[in-house]
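Hi team, as promised in this morning's meeting, here are the two structures we talked about. I've kept the exact order from the run log so nobody has to guess. The first one is mostly here for context; it's the second one we should focus on when we meet again. Sequence first, then the predicted structure tokens.
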Amino acid sequence: MDINGIVHAAADFFATDFGRIVYQALNAIYTFLFPSNVPGAQDVSLPSPKPPAA
């Protein structure tokens, strides 16, 4: 079975009422485990390099 057949079968499944329920349940679990409203990363200032000893 090629990828086109697998994607077509999955699209047909999620187009049904039961497929939509499964999709919404999986989406809710994913949203709960990986929330998108977390704060962004903060910049950390790097120390200035010391000149080499002469």
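And here is the second protein, the one for discussion:
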Amino acid sequence: MNRLRALSRGGGGLVVLLALWAAIHYGGSPLRFAPALLVGVVGAGLPAAFAWLKGAVRSLRRRLADADEGFSAEQGSIFVSEGVVDDAVDCLESIRSALGDDERFDEVEREAFEEGPGLSVLHGGFHNSFVRITGAGRVVVTGASEQTGALADLVSESQSLSFERTRDNPFEGAEPVRGAPRVFLGVLVFVVLLAGVNAVGAAAYTADAYNPAERLVLVGIDAQGDADPGVSGTDARLSKAAFLATVVDEGSTEVRWAGNDSGRVAEQGRQALVASRDARRLLEAVRSGSPTADQRDRADRIERRLAEAERSVADALDERADQGAVGETAEISRLSERLRASDEAVARLARVTTGG
């Protein structure tokens, strides 16, 4: 199996499994993960579809050439039955018996081909035509002589089959993709698979507060919690809360990068507030369970980091408001106040922890 096929099948299969796992893990309507499932299937089949399309285009060009130029016996002929036979060996023996009574053909011999058993038919002293049967049961007559057409007619009559003359070799497999198209297809497969993974993240975490990379990290933490026996549900919640604290902390930088665009400043503040609330819900879920002492200590450390991140974003929002960001100054100030609201709770936690 070549690398491109391994990438497409392995990656597509991984996206499909990820989508199925997400539908079970996150609950709700599984249909929201259907796009990711579809993308995984498409990614797995892209190289085969591309090769089939390439073969179809080649076949169409040959058919158009047939219409314009006709067939030439000297260049070889291929006749393929439109119907199929049930037993290849019985069919070949019946054809062999029919050929033995026809004076146009000098000799008929059984012959083993790469595709299976067949017949070699000698005529005109030195010309050979061949009868073979495809895996699907279609009878194929080939040869580079005008008598090949007569042979096809005889087989058609003896087996009650109709034949179509073609330039396409029915035993020819799909031609592998090479060169620049292969590179392009590899990039396309990678992009499609990445889109499938992102689709899982977008369906699992629908809040606009998170970008695709952040959603991917959150899904990865959830998946590790299910797949790794050494990671408990409490540990996974703590890991997500710690990551969300980092997301909130980055919000202060995003606010400053937004410049004097009040809309962007307010949006960054709203996103930080959403991430902060999600982190606090996770920490509350940890404390309401049965955490170990180490897990409680870790939750306390994460909450202090989260409070510092919230204050950092609030400070950045106040700076933007003081510098005269127009249009949504009141909204920016409200977001700052809501982010600072956790200071008292953290201070209480510190007093309880230290016994003050």
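Starting points for discussion:
The two ends are 67 Å apart (CA to CA).
Residues 34-69 form the longest helix (36 residues).
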